[in-house]
Structures are given as structure tokens and as C-alpha cells.
């Protein structure tokens, strides 16, 4: 028992037959051919050779066995053809010959085995022609009845040729046609299966790309949330610590710090609303981004929190793509956040340099003094996210301690991200 090629369920196979109905067809054809060969052999031995009855029975058995060779026509198609060529000169075995020639042409590959098909077909044609000619020109058949003229020789020869062609050409041609049709259907089925597998692979790849896109989008949103929350909340924590320290001795300054905490909190809420609003927008919506022009305000917020920070801008200013300016802004923001967390009270220098190969931003802090570090929570993902952002734009990123014991964060974005002020005409 085996599965059907169409996947519709199991099919019962018998020996070399894929289906039971194929076996029943071959058994029926073998029975018909065996009956015809047995009758022809019995008549030839008894009527023409005038042998005894046992010889007639033996000839009939051999004829039946000859017809039974059609049972192996799908496995060994040449066997019944050879057996038919042995019995055709005895003026019987026509069914065996026709079916075996058809099986030979339909089951053997063309043109890889065309020589065998052609030669066996030619031999069958010659034997059929000889059999018909012998029957036409035998002494018993050439004697015309009294008063009748026998047909001309060329007529008999023409009739013999037509009979031989009719016995051999139709089964061979139809077998070749059916074999070619079957191979074409199989090739189309293989191609359909291949296309189906390819479509399945493309669907899997599309699902994988969609999964990666969702993952990248979640990662991007997580970076934005981290950039917004980490910096603003760090400032709020710094201001809260300052309020706690100076509340009793300088209520006015404590009130100013509390006011700044409220402003920073509102800014954080506004940026969070913008990010969440982008998630609800369509693809055509433009996401609001912070740029290099907002760096002075970012530095002022850190100064208001008590940080000694200096901003230096060098080179002729020129606009960059929104994604590039936002990335540079986030690098400075992350550098200031790290300074708040790990170098409270230390002097910080922010550099914005428009260089020929792009734009460079750097945040460097001095060594923090003893007892000045504010204990703020850190997940350790800020610098990693900044590195991924910068490298995705084709820039360079570095972060680490410097020679003076401080810490430095620097990023360079390429000049190809700059916007042209005078587009080419």
C-alpha cells in the first residue's frame, strides 16, 4: 500500500502495478491474447501440420503462455514484443502484437531508446508483411474458383503492405503520443510542485521579513522610549535630590528646582505622546524629530539641573536628514544622561562640529569628584542603542574612558546624509 501522488489517500499497489485497475486491465488483455494465441496454435498444429491431439494441446498451452506475457508489459515491455514476433509467422497472435507494440512505444523513453523501438517495430512490420503475403500467395489461396480471374499481383502486394502497416503503425504511433503526453503531464506536475514549494518558501521568507520588520520597529520604539524617559527622568531625579538638600536653607531655589522638575516632566510626557501618536498614524504620517537645532536647549536643561556643561559649535552649519539629526541629538542626550548618572558634579563638554566628511558630536566629562555621583538606575542599553543607530546610518561611534579619567561619547555621521541647499537643475 502506498500514498497516491495527488495526496488523496492510499492506493493499493500489486507488484509493479501502481493501481489495481491497471493490474485488472493487463490480466484482461493477457487473457484475450492468450485465448487468441491458444486457438491459433491449436488450429495450426491440427489443421495445417496434422499432428496428434497431444501436440495440439501443447501448442494451445504455449499460445496461452505467450499471451500471458502481456502481464509483464509494464515492467519489461520488450518481452511480449519478442514473443509476438515468434508467433506472428504462424498467422496468429495479432492481439499480442498490437498491444505489445503499443506498450513498447508508450513505456520506453523516447528518444533515449528509440533505436530499440524502431528496430522491433520494423521487424514486426516485415513479419506481418511476410505473413500476409504468404497467406495471399499460398497454393490454396491462389487457386481462383472456376470462371473467375485472380486479382493482379500488385493488388495483393498493396493489400499486404496496407495490412502490415495497419498492424504496426497505429499502435506504435499512438503509444508514442500517449507516452509523450504522459511525460508532459508529469513534467507539468513536477513544475507545479516546484512552483508550489517556491511559493511556500517565498511565503515563509515574507513572514520572516515581516517578523524582522516588527522586531526592528519594536527595537526602534524601545530606543525612542529609552532616550526620552532616561534623560528626562534622570534630570527629574537630579532636581529632586537638589530640592531635598536645599529645601530648608534655600526655599526659593528649591521652588525653582521643583518648577524645573515640572517642566522636564511635561516635556517627557509630550515626547511620549508624540511617540505613541506615531504608532497610531498611517504610514504617510511624518514623525516629529528632534534635531541639532535643539542642542542648546538640551544643554540648558542640564545646566539647570546643576551640571557644569559647555557647548561648542564649530564649522559652517548645514542641515542634515531628519533621521541623521535625530540620531546626533540622541547621542548628545545619552551622553548627558550618562554624565548625570555616573559623573555628577564633573565638568562636561559638548562638541558639535560640522566637518568636511559629515557632522561630529561628542560629549566628554571629567573625572567625577568623590561623593558626587548620583545613584541612578541604568539598564546598560543606552550606549548599545546609540551604536546601532549610528552604524545603521553608515557612521562611526565610540564610547569609553579617556586618558584623564573621564568618559567620552562620540559619533560621526557621513556627509552623504547632508541636505543640498542648491539642488542640481
Helix content: 55-70%
Distance between the termini: 75 Å
- What would you call the shape? rod-shaped
Structural class: alpha+beta
Oligomeric assembly:
single chain
Number of strands: 7
Order of helices and strands: EEHHHHHHHHHEHEEHEE
**β-strand amount:** 5-15%
* Main β-sheet, spatial strand arrangement: 3-4-5-7-6
Would you identify the regions where 5 or more consecutive residues have pLDDT less than 50?
Answer: 1-11, 282-286
Q: Report the total helices.
A: 11
The pLDDT mean sits at: 76
Largest sheet: 5 strands, mixed
Rg estimate, integer Å: 48 Å
Transmembrane segments: 23-44, 51-72, 78-105, 117-137, 157-178
EC number: 2.7.13.3
GO molecular function: kinase activity
Catalytic activity: ATP + protein L-histidine = ADP + protein N-phospho-L-histidine
Structural summary, described in words:
The chain is of the alpha+beta class and 425 residues long. Helices cover 62% and strands 10% of the residues. It contains eleven helices and seven strands. The strands form two sheets. It has a five-stranded mixed sheet with strand order 3-4-5-7-6, covered by helices on one side. A two-stranded antiparallel sheet has the order 1-2. Strand 4 and strand 5 form a beta hairpin. Helix 1 (20-48) runs antiparallel to helix 4, helix 3 (78-87) runs antiparallel to helix 4 (94-107) and helix 4 packs parallel to helix 7 (153-246). The longest helix is centred in the middle third of the chain and has 94 residues, at 153-246. The two termini are 75 Å apart. The model is unreliable at 1-11 and 282-286 (pLDDT under 50).
Amino acid at each position: 500500500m502506498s500514498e497516491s501522488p495527488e495526496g488523496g489517500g492510499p492506493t493499493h499497489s500489486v507488484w509493479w502495478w501502481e493501481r489495481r485497475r491497471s493490474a485488472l486491465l493487463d490480466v484482461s488483455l493477457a487473457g484475450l491474447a492468450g485465448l487468441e494465441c491458444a486457438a491459433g496454435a491449436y488450429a495450426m498444429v491440427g489443421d495445417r501440420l496434422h499432428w496428434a491431439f497431444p501436440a495440439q494441446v501443447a501448442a494451445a498451452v504455449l499460445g496461452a503462455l505467450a499471451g500471458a506475457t502481456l502481464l509483464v508489459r509494464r515492467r519489461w515491455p520488450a518481452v511480449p514484443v519478442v514473443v509476438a514476433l515468434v508467433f506472428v509467422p504462424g498467422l496468429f497472435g495479432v492481439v499480442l502484437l498490437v498491444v505489445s507494440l503499443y506498450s513498447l512505444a508508450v513505456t520506453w523513453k523516447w528518444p533515449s531508446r528509440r533505436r530499440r523501438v524502431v528496430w522491433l517495430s520494423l521487424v514486426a512490420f516485415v513479419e506481418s508483411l511476410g505473413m500476409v503475403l504468404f497467406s495471399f500467395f499460398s497454393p490454396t489461396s491462389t487457386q481462383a474458383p472456376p470462371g473467375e480471374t485472380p486479382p493482379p499481383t500488385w493488388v495483393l502486394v498493396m493489400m499486404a503492405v496496407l495490412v502490415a502497416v495497419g498492424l504496426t503503425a497505429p499502435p506504435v504511433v499512438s503509444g508514442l503520443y500517449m507516452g509523450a503526453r504522459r511525460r508532459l503531464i508529469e513534467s507539468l506536475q513536477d513544475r507545479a510542485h516546484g512552483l508550489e514549494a517556491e511559493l511556500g518558501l517565498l511565503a515563509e521568507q515574507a513572514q520572516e521579513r515581516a517578523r524582522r520588520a516588527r522586531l526592528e520597529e519594536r527595537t526602534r520604539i524601545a530606543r525612542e522610549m529609552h532616550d526620552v524617559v532616561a534623560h528626562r527622568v534622570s534630570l527629574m531625579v537630579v532636581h529632586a535630590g537638589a530640592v531635598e538638600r536645599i529645601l530648608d536653607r534655600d526655599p526659593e531655589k528649591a521652588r525653582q528646582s521643583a518648577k524645573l522638575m515640572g517642566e522636564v516632566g511635561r516635556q517627557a510626557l509630550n515626547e511620549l505622546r508624540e511617540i505613541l501618536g506615531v504608532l497610531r498614524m498611517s504610514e504617510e504620517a511624518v514623525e516629529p524629530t528632534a534635531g541639532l537645532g535643539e542642542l542648546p536647549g538640551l544643554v540648558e536643561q542640564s545646566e539647570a539641573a546643576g551640571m557644569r556643561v559647555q557647548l561648542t559649535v564649530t564649522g559652517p552649519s548645514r542641515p542634515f536628514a531628519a533621521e541623521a539629526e535625530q540620531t546626533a541629538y540622541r547621542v548628545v542626550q545619552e551622553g548627558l544622561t550618562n554624565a548625570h548618572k555616573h559623573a555628577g558634579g564633573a565638568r562636561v563638554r559638548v562638541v558639535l562640529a560640522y566637518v568636511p566628511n559629515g557632522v561630529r558630536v561628542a560629549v566628554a566629562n571629567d573625572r567625577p569628584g568623590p561623593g558626587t555621583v548620583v545613584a541612578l538606575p541604568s539598564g546598560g542599553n543606552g550606549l548599545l542603542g546609540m551604536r546601532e543607530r549610528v552604524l545603521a546610518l553608515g557612521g562611526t561611534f565610540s564610547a569609553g574612558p579617556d586618558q584623564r579619567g573621564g568618559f567620552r561619547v562620540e559619533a560621526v555621521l557621513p556627509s552623504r546624509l547632508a541636505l543640498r541647499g542648491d539642488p542640481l537643475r
